[in-house]
Amino acid sequence: MSAPLRRLVLDVLKPMKGPSIVDVARELASIKGVSGVNITVKEIDVETITLSITVEGDDIDFESFSERLEELGCAIHSIDQVVAGEKIVEEPDIEE
Fold first, then answer.
1. Is the pLDDT of residue 23 over 90?
2. CATH number at residue 21
């Protein structure tokens, strides 16, 4: 059995038309294994909104998650962080 996904940070494009980010957050939070969703608007264009989506849970089903995003008209632009395993490991705060 593979290690459970605990956190994903995604850069996502959402069309201006369609569901609001509130609706997107509620839909994503209802996916099995997801315990919380944070959506931050990064950029607004004429036709699209660039979102940073952070999701945490006990065992996130990435396939269901990406399919739900597609159903909502969104596209994953990049996967910026993945945390897997028994616990969430935070990046150390290194000062230069």
1. yes
2. 3.30.70.1340
